[in-house]
Write a structure and sequence with these properties.
Strand content: under 5%
Largest sheet: none
Distance between the termini: 22 Å
Low-confidence stretches: none
């Protein structure tokens, strides 16, 4: 068992709960701006501690594009979470590898066989159970805006993964992540301050401040450090099981900390989503990747 991978998954699992807390005080853009500042500074300290080079090695084009997509991903996810639960978000985002496989088929011409199709079918059933809460006879669940927006963030993460494939070969993951959030912060932070000012941050209660620091320092910096350390010590094929623990941490934390209910439809939805992703990963070509912090 890797303590580094467990630390990363623990942070990522609780990140959705922290986002729900922060969204009580800040807009998605205000939250993302603060996260990027906190995460960027912490990553810079880690990079200095590990004596890593900040050289971008001619990857500026991919860094710029990745920075834009990464911001869009965070913004779409946070916007969806304004009207859905942390637990639903965690389970829905588990479907990201399937969207990556679909996008790889269209963009990179990678195979998409019957096991991927089966995985999509099973995961779709799971998402419908989550969104509808079992009321399949009513069409009201189709208007469950937050859940569908969060599902859309799986698409943005798929684009991010495809675009950053070359970056991960040229740059250390910590260095690449630092530059992406720094580039985004250079635009988003001034925009947020001009649009909203600093008053929103001053008016936050203790729970919001703690959650925001947890998101920026823990979920965006320390977790990526732990994940990269864990990957360096474990075969890539063994890390997928750790990602399945992430929504379980979310579900347990959300029940205890923000009193989200666990329903039979949540359990059924989670089962079908995990089954769909497992089939795609085990028998197809969709591979587990680090989640959307």
């Amino acid at each position: 068992m890797s303590i580094f991978l467990l630390i990363a998954v623990f942070f990522w699992g609780l990140s959705y709960i922290a986002i729900k807390v922060v969204l009580k005080y800040l807009t998605p853009i205000e939250m993302i701006a603060a996260r990027f500042v906190l995460g960027g500074v912490t990553l810079l300290i880690i990079i200095w501690y590990k004596h890593l080079s900040l050289a971008i090695k001619g990857q500026i084009k991919y860094l710029l594009l990745s920075a834009v997509i990464l911001f869009l991903h965070f913004w779409v996810m946070a916007t969806g979470m304004e009207t859905t639960t942390a637990t639903n978000t965690a389970w829905i985002l588990t479907t990201a590898p399937i969207f990556i496989a679909i996008l790889s088929f269209f963009v990179l011409k990678e195979p998409f066989g019957r096991f991927q199709i089966m995985g999509v079918f099973l995961a779709t059933i799971g998402v419908v159970f989550l969104v509808s809460k079992g009321d399949l006879g009513s069409l009201d669940w189709i208007s469950s805006t937050g859940d569908w927006i969060v599902l859309g963030s799986c698409v943005t993460w798929a684009f991010y993964t495809i675009v950053t494939r070359k970056l991960t070969k040229a740059l250390n993951p910590l260095v690449g992540t630092f530059w992406m959030i720094t580039i985004s912060a250079a635009v988003i932070v001034p925009y947020s301050l001009l649009r909203s000012g600093r008053d929103a941050y001053y008016m936050m209660n203790t729970d919001g401040i703690v959650a925001l620091v947890f998101l920026g320092v823990g979920c965006l910096a320390i977790s990526f450090w732990s994940w990269s350390e864990g990957l360096s010590k474990r075969p890539a094929g063994e890390v997928g099981v750790y990602l399945y623990l992430e929504p379980l941490f979310t579900m347990a934390g959300a029940t205890i900390l923000i009193k989200e209910a666990i329903t039979v439809w949540l359990i059924l939805g989670a089962f079908f989503i995990v089954a769909g992703v497992y089939v795609s990963e085990k028998f197809g070509l969709a591979k587990p990747i680090e989640p959307a912090v």
